Amino acid sequence: MNRNHSLPWIYQKSRWLIGAIALLGLTLTSYLTLIKLTGNPALCLAGGDGCNIALSSSYATVFGLPLSLYGVAAYFLMAVSAFVPIVLPLEEKSQRDRLENWTWNFLLIGATGMTATSSYLIYILAFELHVFCPYCLTSAICSLSLFLLTLFGRLWEDWGQVIFTGLIVAIVTVVGTLGVYANETPPAPIDGRIPIPALKSAPKPGIGWEIATTSTPSELALARHLKETGVKMYGAYWCPHCGEQKLLLGKQAFAQIDYVECDRKGKKSQTALCQAKEIHSFPTWEINGELHEGIQTLEKLAQLSGYEGSQDFKYIIPGLK
After folding, report:
1. For labeling, which of 1, 28, 196, 204 is most exposed (least CB within 10 Å)?
2. Region of poorest pLDDT, from 52-56, 76-80, 98-102, 305-309
3. How far is it, in rounded angstroms, from Cα 316 to Cα 321?
4. Quick one: which of 21, 129, 11, 1 has its CA closest to 76?
5. At which of 115, 146, 180 does a domain end?
């Protein structure tokens, strides 16, 4: 009698199911990574701004990279581990068994870590950001499904070892995640200038983040010049890069900027104007009739607009040129 046909269907199909769910998660996180890197708004099918608020929060970036990029790597490795023993059947039973055991153990570790991380992030969404993000919830469901299929999709010989491994991985993951998101010490000045503070929590609906930086006479003079020469900044209240651009200028200087809100739900929205100007990313600066996408250093704004006053600017974004 064929042993495979004597096994429950879940044991026979578990690798296919795990691989399919991992590919779904891979597609989802790839989309979110693309959205994060390009600064474009996410298509939130459930309505509201929860998706974009979640993607623009400080929790969506880890070590300078989009959190979703780590999800891409995790789902990719899970898919590979699920499919490799299927697409690479080995003739020798000993080799096949080793490959099966190795990949099942990796699936257990990976699924446990992903579920623990997703659980913490869902907590953050519910109790810190107070938003609903369908993409985040779908990813969490995918992680949980991978975990359950890994547990019950194989006839594990030693459940004690499985439980022990799962607990250790979960504890290490939670502790590591808490460490990553722990408060960091303020960055040291760079060439006498202060790095802008990180954007914390979620932007205020329709308004965005509070501008926590103060302007010096140099920022104020530049802002007045930009206004007098007809320079405009196009943005969206939920856009983190727009928030960082505002921090560079400072509260008092940004108040002088001719700012155009492009999101329909933003305060004093001018969506029609943004569409007429064909604004595709935020922020976008319009200077002398030309559009310049992305965050601009204050020196670059001065150069593009012909500003010749003091450039003793206070803040800086490390790495921005």
Report:
1. 1
2. 52-56
3. 10
4. 21
5. 180
Look at residues 142, 137, 134 and name the one whose alpha carbon lies nearest to residue 47. 134
- Full residue range of the structural domain in which residue 79 is found: 3-180
Q: CATH number for the domain including 310?
A: 3.40.30.10
Structure tokens at 78: 């899970």
For 43-70, the pLDDT digits (tens) are 776 656 677 777 777 788 888 889 999 9
Q: Is the pTM of this model over 0.70?
A: no
Is the domain of 210 the same as that of 157?
no
On whether both 255 and 172 belong to a single domain, the answer is: no
Q: What's the chain's average pLDDT?
A: 89
pLDDT confidence of 183, banded at 50, 70, 90? low
**For 119-131, b where at least 16 C-beta lie within 10 A, e where not — what string?**
bbbbebbeeebeb
Dig out the tokens for 169 from the structure.
């991985």
Contacts of 50 (CB under 8 A, 6+ apart): 44, 125, 131, 132, 133, 134
Terminal alpha carbon distance of the chain: 69
| 253, 161: one domain | no
Query: What tokens appear for 157 in the block?
Result: 């010989």
What would the two tokens of residue 54 be?
A: 């979640």
Look up residue 238 and give its amino acid: W
HEC per residue, 51-108:
HHHHHHCHHHEECCEEHHHHHHHHHHHHHHHHHHHHHCCCCCHHHHHHHHHHHHHHHH
- What is the predicted pLDDT for the residue at 2? 47
Give the pLDDT confidence of 225-269 residue by residue, as tens digits: 999 999 999 999 999 889 999 999 999 999 999 999 999 999 999
What is the domain count for the chain? 2
**Domain shared by 81 and 221, yes or no:** no
For residues 169 and 112, is the Cβ–Cβ distance under 8 A? yes
